[in-house]
Amino acid sequence: MQPTQAKQFEHAVLRNYRLDHAYDEMFAGPDELHPHYEPLFERFSSLPANELQQRKHSAELSFLNQGITFTVYGRDDGRAEHIFPYDLVPRIITAAEWATVELGLTQRITALNLFLKDIYNEGRILADGIVPRELVYSCKHFRRQMVGLQVPRNVYVAICGTDLIRMENGEFVVLEDNLRVPSGVSYMLTNRRVMKRIFPQLFRSYNVRPIEQYTQLLLGTLRSLAPEGRPEPNIVLLSPGVFNSAYFEHAYLARQMGIELVEGRDLVTHDNIIYMRTTSGLRRVDVIYRRVDDDFIDPLAFRGDSILGVAGLFNAYRAGNVTLANAFGTGVADDKAMYAYVPSIIKYYLSEEPILQNVKTYILTEPKSRQHVLQNLDKLVVKAVGESGGYGMLIGPQSTAAQREEFARKIEAEPRNYIAQPTISFSRAPCLIGDELEPRHVDLRPYILYGDKVTIVPGGLTRVALKRGSLVVNSSQGGGSKDTWVLSQ
Amino acid sequence: MLSRVADSLYWMSRYIERAEHTTRLLDVNLNLMLDESATSADRRWQRLLQTLGSPKDLKWTGDPYALTQTLSFDTEAKGSILSCIISARENARHVREQISTEQWHRLNSLYLQVTRPEMQPATETLAAMAGLEQPAEFLQQVMEAVHQFQGVSDSTMSHGEGWQFIQVGRYIERASATALLLEAYHEDLWRHTDPIPDGNEYLEWMGLLRSATAFEAYCKVYTADVTPDRIVEFLLLDEEFPHSVRFSIDTLDHALGAIHGEGGKSRAEPLRRLAGRLQGSLRFSSVEEILNGDIVAYLRGIQYQCAAIHKMIYELYIDYSIQAALAG
To answer: pLDDT digit string (tens) for A432-454?
Structure first.
């Protein structure tokens, strides 16, 4: 489709603003702003260019000074700290749009927790043939050790970050569930803090729903999962340590919640009870918000070569003496091939139609789908099922013949390891590029807490593919983020 | 407080103190070389190595510039200034959330400053440098940065348990270093078979006092009348001078008391006894008694007791056995 340029875009700040077939978060059409973007546009187009630059600079400095950085693996020995690029233009979501998203995410997390309980216990959904048995058992995140184990309050996934994108018609759909150790929530919180400082009046004029209560809600969720008979539970955050790319977030959340930030070497097990070593002796640990992957968390139960974990943790967990959030083995439900079955999973357990749709997904173990995908690699996106962070991905329309050949070989060798989806031109939001506004593709990752009840702070992390035309929003691949405003009416 | 955190704070502090000590020793000895006296360079530099505890990975080869280079920049040598700064910074990085932003910035910028490649001249060029400006400047920068770091630690960090572990690290390091310094000089000045010609003694004693930043403070107490007995008295027993062994042990004991109070465990008693005994010996000894007895044994005794205190801190707070902790 030919990009269109409307008369209105002769405004200097919009000189490079081109609409295409992707949904635009700000413009309903060439001459028409979405009403909720009007005050924002007015503000941004009335500020002199150097003023915008100054504010952007001031925001970046604020991130750097606060040490809000992340590490990129494989670059500068993985030692260098980078700021997560921050875009100044907030992304606005109306109250009505959010209401649907909230309902849909609540439905989804409820169903996924029921699914996990089922496959690790009776396995009804497998017996009924809704989800193929092989798909579950061949998933590398399926944990045999979890079979038959009672999980406190049947909460497998207490903390979830679900990636949503917006289709061309403006509808929110789910791109991916992150049910293991979703990250990024600290950026959601710090983006908001910086935004309020940089555009206080604009912010106030908008009636934005607050998100600052997140850490308190998270603490409440963790507390609600404490083992029986521990009324004053000792809750800790388990981090792999300073070399982890998300260490800033671990330290930030621990500090905001007022809980201890521990590493594997701080914890010891005795008689199936976990203790942390303190200068005043051993102190029992009741709930672990773990930011360490299953594989590395207990060298006795999982990978024996891990030095990040705690030997004996799994047994203590099985004995019910300590709760982990999230539980082990939740990755089986966010496997990219399992994703295709989530709508059926929702229908099966809740007898409801899914509120949020999935993106069409080809399961490559099915010969017909595989055939189709191999013939159309130049139009599709291929993803490795076990990867995240934008690694192991082929974007058909932007790929070279050699890359397509390589992926075709990989798919034929291990069809279970890949899925394919149509290339979606997901929605674009205005971003400050130089002195001008330009549209960039964005997604949305709301953070869902599941304890006594389901809680979702309004908004989430909007990630931006800052390179023009890019569809990859991951921070490791040149993505940035922006503040997300959910309006209260 | 997590044991790991206490451990990191303790070592951060020890390493930074060690870096400063080594820096000052180098600075003093390079400075003494300008007034070449009958005391041979050989003797002085070997004594310097002795005051650093005769590290196994360092040998005196007869070239003071090569030794300065190694002691400043050689990361293979564990005791080099650069190694100490890297270790201090690494420990700080692991407890970044526990120290103040100001502390982190000061230490991190020192680290960035000394690890810049242009900071480290090649050995050949150093050897060719008779002027000494460059090492002197480098040493000055490190000392200033360390003083700033220690000042910032005292003024920006809460004086809670973490800060007390920083105090413990700093003063246990300082007490043993000062005792070792005196021991090395004792061998050389009081016992050496061919006495140093008159007039040069003064230079050596000034060097000794300067090595503990003590020259000015000493003069305020005793005037510029420098004698070995008074030096020993001042560096060992002075109550008010922050680099004396007595002051260090007093501060150390105070910090251990504060930690003990917060930790609230009775099994800290043996540690308090150990520190208290050393403190008592320094408080109630006279310099005459010490000099009439075996002074080397006395100085070594201090070092052994510091090592024993270190070991007991570990057993109590950091590396205790799980069984013992559960039983207690």
So the answer is: 988 889 999 999 999 999 998 99
Domain ranges of chain A: 1-227+322-353+443-489, 360-422
Q: Which residues pair with B266 in a beta bridge?
A: none
Clarify whether residues B190 and B246 are in a common domain: yes
Domain finish residue from B157, B179, B202 = B157
Mutation target for A interface from B1, B2, B109: give the one with most A CBs within 10 A. Answer: B2
Cβ pair B2:A266 closer than 8 A = yes
- Indicate if B151 and B223 belong to the same structural domain: no
> Which chain B residue's Cα is nearest to A270?
B322
Q: Which residues of chain A are within 8 Å of residue B263 when distances are taken between CB atoms?
A: 279-281
A188 close to B (CB below 8 A): no
Measured between alpha carbons, how far is A292 from A250 in angstroms, rounded to an integer? 11
Q: Which of B3, B96, B328 sits opposite A277 (nearest CB)?
A: B3
Query: Are both B115 and B252 inside the same structural domain?
Result: no
What are B152's two structure tokens?
A: 């910032």
A437 vs A72, residue with greater confidence: A437
Range of the domain at B205: 159-328
Domain A360-422 sits in CATH at 3.30.1490.270
Q: Which residues of A264-291 are buried (b: 16+ CB within 10 A; e: fewer)?
A: bebbbbeebbbbbbbbbbbeebbbbbbb
Same domain? For B150 and B199 the reply is no
CB contact under 8 A, A279 and B326: no
A277/B1 touch (CB, cutoff 8 Å), yes or no: no
DSSP state of A453: S
Question: Encoding tokens for residue A315?
Answer: 């047994």
Question: CA-nearest residue of chain B to A263?
Answer: B4
For residue A13, give both structure tokens.
């700040």
| Residues 222-241 in A contacting B (C-alpha not used; CB under 8 Å) | 241
CB atoms within 10 A of CB A307: 12
d(CA A280, nearest CA chain B) in Å: 5
- On whether both B140 and B211 belong to a single domain, the answer is no
Q: pLDDT tens digits, residue range B81-132? A: 999 999 999 999 889 888 988 899 899 889 988 887 656 555 445 544 544 4
